[in-house]
Write a structure and sequence with these properties.
globular; 23% helix
Length: 124
């Protein structure tokens, strides 16, 4: 197999409540590239993930996404300004903090339990 033949790679995220999850990701700053009643493609720049109208608690609670950004503080300010933690009770939102592996990571869970690691690298 030639790894240069890969054109795209996307994860399928679960949604406990599909409409709430879609609004959460719109509030977070993603745009919808396309959507249907069971699946939606969310986009930030050239990067996408798929949100599906499907949920298994154990799977969602162990699902993680890693998003590398230029500045995690900008994302944290957006989360605070949009009052995302207040709008979606029960989610977890922790400000960026330096981790032992050298990245600053903002932790944010979505309404279905998916944990996002939104990270920046101060060395770059």
């Amino acid at each position: 197999m030639d790894s240069n033949s890969v054109l795209d790679l996307k994860a399928f995220l679960p949604a406990k409540d599909y409409s709430v999850a879609k609004q959460f990701y719109l509030d977070l700053g993603f745009t919808i590239a396309w959507e249907g009643d069971q699946l939606a493609a969310f986009q930030a720049g050239e990067f996408r993930f798929l949100l599906q109208n499907y949920y298994v608690k154990e799977w969602a609670g162990n699902f993680m996404m890693h998003l590398m950004v230029k500045d995690a503080d900008i994302w944290w300010k957006h989360i605070q300004d949009k009052k995302i933690a207040e709008k979606y009770p029960g989610i977890m939102a922790k400000p960026p903090a330096l981790q032992p592996w050298g990245l600053r990571v903002l932790y944010l869970s979505d309404p279905s339990g998916v944990l996002w690691h939104i990270a920046d690298d101060l060395k770059q």
